[in-house]
Amino acid sequence: LWVLLISSACPSYAQDSTCAEVKIEIMQELTLERQGFDAHMKINNGLSGITLENIVVEVTFDDEDGNPVLASSDPYNTGAVFFIRKDSDQIADNQDGSWSIDPVGPSSSSDLHWLIIPSTGASKGLAEGTLYFVGAKLSYTLSGEEHVTEVTPDYIHVKPMPELQMDYFLTREVFGDDAWTSEIEAPVPFTLGLRIKNTGFGVARSLRIDSAQPKIVANEQGLLASFLIRSCE
After folding, report:
1. Distance between CA atoms of 100 and 180, rounded to whole angstroms?
2. C-alpha pair distances (Å), 35 with each of 42, 98, 115, 159, 173
3. What are the backbone angles phi and psi of residue 36, rounded to the nearest 5°?
4. Dihedrals φ, ψ of 43, to 5°?
5. How many CB atoms are closer than 10 A to CB 102?
6. Of residues 85 and 191, more confidently modeled
7. Distance CA 214, CA 24 (A)
8. For the whole model, what pTM was predicted?
9. What is the 3-state secondary structure (H, E, C) of 159-202?
10. Average model confidence (pLDDT) for the chain?
11. Model pLDDT for residues 144-153, shown as the tens digit of each residue
């Protein structure tokens, strides 16, 4: 990504030169396509006069050898192999990582969804993908009696993900209006460059960067300057 910046300053005059420092901030948002899974559970209550209550679902994750792996709803959990979040209004989070489900009335059903996102290292760098099993433990109360059902796991293959490194660079010297002359010189456009390197094993698809205009965040000397993105390529 190449961004063309133009700076401008109003003229000012002084006997001695002063070194002024201005810090700018450019807010950018990077998006790309990545792998995700929809975990779907449908709870059917075929009883005509009884409600299923105190429903709790624990979504489980195992590797191909049957060993449990960590899944978390906390996006900052660095030890998680998977990140999971509810995708239905009938689901509520519990502190122990399980999920409470709204009661299912007589002769009705509840359609539940979770979004599952693998962490960066979940594929283990294997081009063919890494096998995992996703299951669930369902507990509920029926006429005051607690029941527990183990949901048969299904399998998923986690493909390698891209890992992006972003390197910004800009022109060493930028020219604007000379404050020591009465003539107002036009600012000279300069380039801010961004180099993106993919160090991962997956392809970065549908990569997009949205950029806001520069914002001055520090200007202690009160320099009359501004910056504007004119174009990018």
Report:
1. 70
2. 23, 23, 11, 7, 42
3. -150, 165
4. -105, 115
5. 16
6. 85
7. 6
8. 0.74
9. CCCCCEEEEEEECCCCCCCCCCCCCCCCCCCEEEEEEEEECCCC
10. 88
11. 999 999 999 9
Listed as own residue / partner, the contacts of 31-35 with beta carbons closer than 8 Å and 24 or more positions apart are 31/206, 31/207, 31/208, 31/209, 31/210, 32/162, 32/164, 32/204, 32/205, 32/206, 32/207, 32/208, 33/204, 33/205, 33/206, 34/117, 34/161, 35/117, 35/118, 35/158, 35/159, 35/161
Q: What six digits make up the tokens of 6?
A: 């133009």
CA distance 183 to 11: 9
- Residue in the structure block whose two tokens are 């960590």: 70
Task: Give 44-63 pLDDT, tens digit per residue.
Answer: 999 999 999 999 999 999 99
**Contacts of 89 by beta carbon, 8 Å cutoff, 6+ apart:** none
> Tokens 């600012």 correspond to what residue?
187
Residues linked to residue 129 through DSSP beta bridges, in sequence order: none
